[in-house]
Structure formats: structure tokens, C-alpha cells
Amino acid sequence: MLELPESHVIADQLNKTIKGKTIKNVTVNQSPHKFTFYFGDPQEYDKLLSGRQVGETCALAGQVEIALGDARLLFTDGTNIRYLKEGEKPPKKHQLYAEFTDDTALVCTVQMYGGIQAFLDGQNDNPYYLVAKEKPTPYMEAFDRTYFETVYKNAKDNLSVKALLATEQRIPGLGNGVLQDILFHAGIHPKEKIANIDETKRDMLFINLKNTLLEMREKGGRDTEKNLFGEYGGYQTYLSKKTLEEPCPKCGGWISRQAYLGGNIYFCPRCQPVDVK
Known about the structure:
Blueprint: H1 4-17, E1 23-28, E2 36-38, H2 45-49, E3 57-60, E4 63-68, E5 71-75, E6 79-84, E7 96-100, E8 105-110, E9 114-120, H3 127-134, H4 145-153, H5 161-166, H6 176-186, H7 199-218, E10 256-260, E11 263-267
Parallel strand pairs: 2-9
Antiparallel strand pairs: 1-7, 3-4, 4-5, 5-9, 6-8, 7-8, 10-11
């Protein structure tokens, strides 16, 4: 799933791989998928995008946006983006296939849900897109300790720390996936109420939020997610589906998994105790 580290890694890879190429043709919705969300009529994408030269690609929180003159091609969370070399065959099922004049291509597939959106600059009024463009992310200098405290104090005291960090677009691009290691390093349980976290602990949370996300990006994304070339990232997750059967790297205890707020949370009961009051 596209979260902050992966969106930045893939944007960097796209800038090194397809910038300057010209789109020859675009096939959209070749394999209909009811949870693929398009902007407008996807049958118009070929007309809109063909003949355009690829400009700069940027990461917008957990989204990836390619500039094509005054048009934009946007991929949101849940969309798998792959680069195909000349002669490399696309998968049988895909939701977008953009071929370039040098016979290389981009192919996008959606498994659970995802967005593939082509539009003219300024047309897209989707609130998730606008928030991703407007709010600072932890990779920016503007996302400092003061800003984080504002996010914290504007939330209700009865929220859990997972709800604070990974819902309602308070921090766009920070999702359930990257959340696990951030909280593990900070020693905070995902269900802990934010009212129970004092200022010293919030300092630790802020530091680990920034540092963990930066390490994930610098190492090419997480080892649970694939990049533009179908390769897993180099960041070895501490808490994820890949480490569930392994002992806690801090105390040697066993990792727990629970369903919570629309996804699984992973935690060490010893290192991340929770105040249930």
C-alpha cells in the first residue's frame, strides 16, 4: 500500500526512469475492478494523455502524481505501479497501461481498492487530494515539534494514538502500515489514549515518527511493500505480518496481533503496555 515512504521512493524512481518520455497510448479499465476509483470518464484518458511528455513526478503524502504538461496522472493508496522495459509483457489483468514511444510502459493494478486519476491541473477537488497538497508531512521542515503539538491538541482526549496518527488525514500518508514501527520505537501501545501520554512521551513519539519514516524512505521503502520495479524495500520491519512469529527484538517476548480500527495492529505487550482506564 502506498504510504509516505513508498510514495517518495516510487516518485524518485519515476523521475529517474520515465521523465522526458512521451506517452504513445493509454489503456484504462481493461479488467474492470469495482473498487478502482477513477476521475471522470476513464475512457477519455487515452485522448487526454496520449502525445504528452512526462514531466516531474512528486509524492503527495501517500499519493504519487505525474505532471504531463497541464494534465496530471495521480495514483492513490492501494494502486500498484510497475515499470515495464521494452518487450516485457504486462500482467493479464490491469487497470491502467500507459505505453511510451520507446516501447517501455507503466502498468497499474489494484487488488483491494485504489485510485487512478487523470485530469487537467486544477480540476481535481477530491478532499483527500487537496489535503495531501496542503498539509505538511513529517518529511518537511514545517512538520516540527510545534506543528505536531497542534495536531495533538486539536484532537479529542479519548482518541487512541492510532486514531490520532492514522485516521482523518491528520497526517496525510501516515497509515496503519508505518504506524507499527513508529509506536514500537516510542514504546507506546496503538490503543493508548492520547490523554495518557505526557509531554515527555510525546517528545519521544515525535522523534520516532520523524526518524522511523526517514529511515524507511532512505532504505527504499518497507520490506512488506514493492517498488516501481517489483522489488521489496530494504527497510526491515520490526512489527508486521513478516515478524509476527518472531520474538520481540527488544525484550524477547512474543508479538501480539489484534484487529483494531479497520486493520491489524502489532505490538509487544511488555514493551508497549497500555493503560486501559
